[in-house]
Amino acid sequence: MPKVGMPDIRKPQLVKATMAVIERVGLHAASISLISREAGVSTGIINHYFGGKHGLLEETMRAILREHAQTVMTTLADYPLDAHKDRINAIVKANFSGYQARSEVAKTWIAFWSFSMHDPQLLRLQRINEKRLISHLLIELKPLLPKPLAQRVAQGIAALIDGFWLRGTLNQQGINTEEASFIISDYLEHQLAHAAQATQ
Fold first, then answer.
1. Which end of the chain is more exposed for a tag (fewer CB within 10 A), N or C?
2. From CA 101, how far away is CA 95, in angstroms rounded?
């Protein structure tokens, strides 16, 4: 965590520099020296306010999570509370558009994803993001499906989002947002239709 007193202008500057360096050389090669040079600050600034590379990585992940949460909430605000299918599709769209779709953000996400397996604090942040996604989906799915099925479909949609993210980030063309949204929407329609038939 950054220390109290860290100038607000410095944090986004350093987060941006961290993502740019990770995009260029990867997480393991993203040294404090490279990041400080990218940001135009001394290495002492990073060490003083963040306690080194790990603290800066944690702040970068938190910044990405905050931006993502804001994107989801802003997208959902365009739809009535009872438009559950539209709101699910909006949640999906928010995962593939805007800030999240930028190359440096996507590559940083993937880097953190793999790194979090060996880092308890980053894993905790990743779990928070995962639970937030499932929670958003369940709010919209529970009025449409029985609770056990709603939970299963929420997990299915989350897995599809993660899968398209992974494949798209590893692809030079990036994430095909239209294809991802169509396939996930099709999966949802099939689940809803299957549930409706089962109750007849």
1. C
2. 8
**8-29 pLDDT per residue, tens:** 657 888 999 999 999 999 888 9
Radius of gyration of the chain (CA): 19
Helix locations, 77-176, DSSP H: 84-95, 103-115, 120-141, 147-169
Domain assignment present for 16? no
The answer to whether residue 100 is domain-embedded is yes
CB neighbours (10 Å) of residue 124?
11
| CA 184 distance to own-chain centroid | 17
Structural domains counted in the chain: 1
Tokens of 77: 């605000």
Note the pTM of the prediction, 2 decimals: 0.86
Is the Cβ–Cβ distance between 63 and 32 less than 8 Å? no
The predicted structure's pLDDT at residue 9: 57
CA distance 16 to 104: 9
Q: Which domain holds residue 144?
A: 61-198
Residue 118 lies in a domain: yes
**What's the rounded mean pLDDT across residues 152-159?**
97
pLDDT digits (tens, 9 = 90+) for 129-144: 999 999 999 999 999 9
